[in-house]
């Protein structure tokens, strides 16, 4: 929902008006495709049930929204307006840019009493007087326990009963804290066991890699020797050159032709 037009002293340009609520833009967002701007609080609900721009009907999604261009935003924020609580007595006029900051300190803004469960609503300037006499304000017990209690309940306050209630609450909090500590301890022990198991597994893996490496250094010379023996056998028996191996066979080249020989022939 935008800022009410009736609050403004300046003429409102059309491009500073939301096409959804027809008020002055508030937290403006624009579509990157068509550059039409709307209040953030208006356009987001619109996009939940529509897939087009409210102004030009161009296809859009929420991902097309962006902050208003800086020049356009400055033009909007310089519009002069009255305080939204001028009917209550505030006579301040200010640019839209300073609206939020003024609302935070305006003495005519209606606020709720801070003393729970008091629901009195008064102008901010009048609230300090109310809180001093509010029946729900907290005061210290003058009967001996010095507990903070609602002023309206002071007459029926019993120090012993109240302290017993406070002790019970503290005991419950202590029990809950102990349960939480026990849970944290159990989780920590599980984590320590997991880390220990992983460390052991890494050590076992390292030992396995070392064993395989040692075995590989022992096997490679034997394999190389066997391959050299096969070359000698092929050259001695067939006068051919060793070309390659397959599944249980040797591929040989002789006078430009290729032959497949099973390994079993080499053992004849």
From TrEMBL:
Entry keyword set: Coiled coil, Metal-binding, Zinc, Zinc-finger
Coiled coil: 160-187
PROSITE patterns from the UniProt entry: ZF_RING_1, ZF_RING_2, ZF_TRAF
RING-type domain location: 18-57
Zinc finger (TRAF-type) boundaries: 101-150
MF annotations from Gene Ontology: zinc ion binding
Protein name: RING finger protein 151-like
């Amino acid at each position: 929902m935008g800022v009410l037009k009736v609050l403004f002293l300046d003429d409102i340009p059309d491009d500073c008006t939301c096409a959804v609520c027809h008020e002055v833009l508030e937290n403006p967002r624009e579509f990157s495709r068509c550059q039409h701007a709307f209040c953030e609080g208006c356009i987001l609900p619109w996009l939940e049930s529509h897939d087009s721009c409210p102004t030009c009907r161009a296809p859009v999604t929420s991902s097309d929204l962006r902050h208003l261009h800086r020049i356009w935003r400055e033009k909007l924020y310089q519009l002069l307006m009255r305080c939204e609580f001028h009917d209550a007595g505030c006579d301040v006029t200010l640019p839209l840019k300073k609206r939020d900051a003024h609302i935070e300190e305006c003495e005519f803004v209606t606020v709720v009493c801070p003393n729970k469960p008091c629901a009195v609503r008064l102008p901010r300037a009048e609230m300090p007087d109310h809180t001093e006499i509010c029946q729900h304000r907290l005061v210290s017990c003058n009967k001996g326990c010095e507990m903070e209690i609602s002023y309206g309940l002071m007459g029926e306050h019993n120090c012993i009963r109240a302290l017993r209630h406070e002790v019970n609450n503290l005991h419950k909090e202590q029990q809950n804290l102990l349960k939480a500590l026990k849970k944290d301890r159990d989780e920590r022990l599980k984590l320590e066991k997991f880390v220990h198991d992983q460390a052991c597994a890494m050590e076992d893996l390292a030992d396995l890699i070392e064993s395989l490496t040692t075995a590989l250094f022992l096997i490679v010379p034997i394999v190389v020797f066997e391959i050299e023996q096969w070359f000698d056998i092929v050259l001695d028996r067939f006068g051919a050159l060793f070309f390659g191996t397959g599944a249980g066979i040797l591929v040989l080249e002789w006078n430009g032709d290729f032959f497949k020989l099973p390994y079993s022939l080499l053992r004849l």
